[in-house]
Write a structure and sequence with these properties.
This protein is of the alpha+beta class. Helices cover 22% and strands 36% of the residues. It has one domain: Signal recognition particle alu RNA binding heterodimer, srp9/1. Strands 2-1-6-5-4-3 form a six-stranded antiparallel β-sheet, with helices on one face.
């Protein structure tokens, strides 16, 4: 959960070596969905409802789904799975 006045940046791991931040609109969308999911009980209450479809916020990410429970991003077209995480910037 973010601290008031802070900015949360969500990132994904590119080729297991470089963390790449999502563009701000995508990061904000993931944070909003993550906050709502956590407020409802997160993985304990909603283990099968942790998917965030990035096509809802960016047409360039139509194949990608973020799994909040597994902390991963999957390209549904290729099956490629990457880790992702967030960090707060004040």
């Amino acid at each position: 959960m973010s601290v008031q006045g802070s900015v949360v940046v969500w990132e994904w791991l590119f080729h297991s070596s470089q963390w790449v931040p999502y563009e701000p609109s995508v990061s904000n969308y993931i944070e909003t969905v993550h906050s709502q999911w956590m407020a409802r009980g997160g993985a304990t209450a909603w283990p099968n409802q942790s998917g965030v479809y990035l096509k809802n916020v960016s047409s360039s990410l139509t194949s990608y789904v973020v799994d909040l429970n597994a902390m991963s991003q999957t390209n549904q077209s290729t099956g490629t799975k990457n880790c992702f995480f967030f960090k707060e910037k004040l």
